[in-house]
UniProtKB/TrEMBL annotation:
Keyword Protein transport among UniProt keywords: no
Enzyme class at the top of the EC tree: transferase
HAMAP family for this protein: Asp_carb_tr
Complexes and interactors: Heterododecamer (2C3:3R2) of six catalytic PyrB chains organized as two trimers (C3), and six regulatory PyrI chains organized as three dimers (R2).
Protein's UniProt name: Aspartate carbamoyltransferase
Family: Belongs to the aspartate/ornithine carbamoyltransferase superfamily. ATCase family.
Domain Aspartate/ornithine carbamoyltransferase carbamoyl-P binding: 2-146
Domain of life, source organism: Bacteria
Recorded metabolic or biological pathway in which this protein acts: Pyrimidine metabolism; UMP biosynthesis via de novo pathway; (S)-dihydroorotate from bicarbonate: step 2/3
Enzyme Commission designation: 2.1.3.2
One MF term in the entry's GO annotations: aspartate carbamoyltransferase activity
Signal peptide, first to last residue: none
Length: 321
């Protein structure tokens, strides 16, 4: 794997390979000494132009558990405020010895530009770009669904026949986009539920069913319900009903969660707007996998770093791999 830029071009075989390696990594994390020597001598740069808690810290934890050195860069407080470009910033960090660059950027396409411009030779991992994609989030979500369904027998399994409902602000969600591509590549059936104003215009080209009524979607008995964060910071007021109406019609509360089958799970990528898209009762219930997703994120990111820096390097594969 040379880069990980998206899940739209990640084929089934490559996706399963990442999930299976993540299973191996997960097993090592239960040991007393969970550090592996695999990436000793390698340097991973976390290049974050947008805020993050889970993604940045779990990439740091993943790299350190594989014995890589980590350099953390946050645009806030850096020379970006003096006008330094993405190219000059990336080349500066490469000059300090970066072997892999994990980038989060407000501009959709920034990771692809970094990977294909020839500015740097390091491998590039997309940690979320604008409203485009967040591939490692989708991989950890798929890993979580698979683990809940198959337990210790997860390796090699895809998600055929599993039904996932993704609810909320699809328009602005890179998590939704990456999950739509990855989950359907792995055989899952995906239904999007959203206010009409928060559905992307080109959704008819996506391999999904779209409904506007959350109760109708929940009545179909999904295996997983993935609540999306309302991205108030990207929102145009014209798109958004009042918070009260949104919560009443598209929020997951304890009453709605109680209609789900016993083995159905509730997911959220975080950070959550408690009381808006998800109630505290639903977020903290035994069917919630919110913290499991965070734990699994470390294993999945270990797998991605391993395959990028120590695994087979096949530059002929698709953009995702
Ligand atoms: N899910 C997610 O990307 O969270 P952070 O913004 O905290 O990284």
């Amino acid at each position: 794997m040379r880069n990980l830029l998206d899940t739209r071009t990640l084929d089934r075989e490559s996706a399963l390979r990442i999930l299976d390696v993540a299973e191996d990594m997960s097993d090592t994390q239960t040991r007393e000494n969970r550090k592996l020597p695999t990436l000793r001598g390698k340097t991973v740069v976390n290049l974050f132009f947008e805020d993050s808690t889970r993604t940045r810290i779990s990439f740091e934890a993943a790299a350190k558990r594989l014995s890589a050195d980590v350099i953390n860069f946050a645009a806030k407080g850096s020379s970006v405020s003096k006008g330094e470009s993405l190219k000059d910033t990336a080349q500066t960090l490469q000059a300090m010895g970066a072997d892999a660059v994990v980038i989060r950027h407000h501009a959709s396409g920034a990771p692809r530009t970094l990977a294909t411009s020839g500015w740097i030779t390091a491998g590039v991992i997309n940690a979320g770009d604008g409203t485009h994609e967040h591939p490692t989030q989708a991989l950890l979500d798929a890993f979580t669904i698979r683990k809940r369904r198959f337990g210790a027998d997860s390796r090699g399994q895809d998600l055929s026949g599993i039904r996932v409902v993704i609810v909320g602000d699809v328009l602005h969600s890179r998590v939704a986009r990456s999950n739509v591509w990855l989950l359907t590549t792995l055989g899952a059936e995906v239904t999007l539920v959203s206010p009409p104003t928060l559905v992307p215009q080109n959704v008819s080209q996506w391999p999904v069913r779209v409904v506007y009524d959350l109760d109708e979607a929940l009545a179909d008995g999904p295996d997983a319900v993935m609540m999306l964060r309302i991205q108030l910071e990207r929102m145009n007021a014209a798109y958004f009903p009042s918070e009260r109406e949104y919560s009443r019609r598209w929020g997951l509360d304890a009453v709605r969660a109680a209609t789900l089958a016993d083995d159905s799970i509730v997911m959220h990528p975080g950070p959550m707007n408690r009381g808006l898209e998800i109630s505290a009762e639903a977020a903290d219930s035994p069917r919630s996998t919110v913290l499991e997703q965070v734990t699994n994120g470390v294993s999945v990111r270990m797998a991605v770093l391993y395959l990028l820096l120590a695994g087979e390097r096949d530059d002929e594969r698709g953009e995702g791999s």
